[in-house]
Amino acid sequence: MSVGKEFTKGLYAENPVFKQALGLCPTLAVSNSVRNAVGMGLAMTFVLVLSNIIVSLIRRFVPRKIRIPIYIVVIATFVTIVDLVMAGFAPDLHKALGIFVPLIVVNCIILGRAEAFAGRNSVFRSLLDGLGMGFGFSLALFVLAFIREILGDGRLYGFPLLGPGFEPMLIMILPPGAFLTIGLLMGLMNWLDKRRCS
Amino acid sequence: MKDVLRMAWILGVVTVLAAAVLGAVNHVAKPRIEEQRRLALEQALLSALPKADPRAIVPVYEGDEIVYYKGYAQPDTTGLVGYAFVARGAGYSSEIETLVGVDTTGQIIGLKILREVETPGLGTKIEEVRYGEKDPWFQRQFIGKRARQLAVDKDGGEIVSVTGATISSRAVTNSIRKGLEELEKRLGGFSKTAQQVSD
Amino acid sequence: MEDKLWKVSTSPHLSDRESIPRIMWLVAASLAPAGIGAVYFFGARAAWTIFLAVASAIATEAAIQKLRGKPITVHDGSAFVTGLLLAYNLPAEVPFWIPIIGSAFAIALGKQIFGGLGYNPMNPALLGRAFLLASWPTHMTIFRTPPRGGTISGIDVETGATPLNLLKQAQDVLHQAKVAPGEVPAQKISEAMMHISKLYESYGNLFWGKVGGCLGETSVFLLLIGAAFLLYKRYIDLRIPVGYIGSVALLTWAFGGSEGLFTGNPLFHVLAGGLVLGAFFMATDMVTSPITPRGKWIFGIGCGVITVIIRLIGGYPEGVSYSILLMNLTVPLLDRYTKPAIFGARKR
Question: Measured between beta carbons, which residues in chain C are less than 8 angstroms from residue B154?
Answer without folding.
Answer: 169
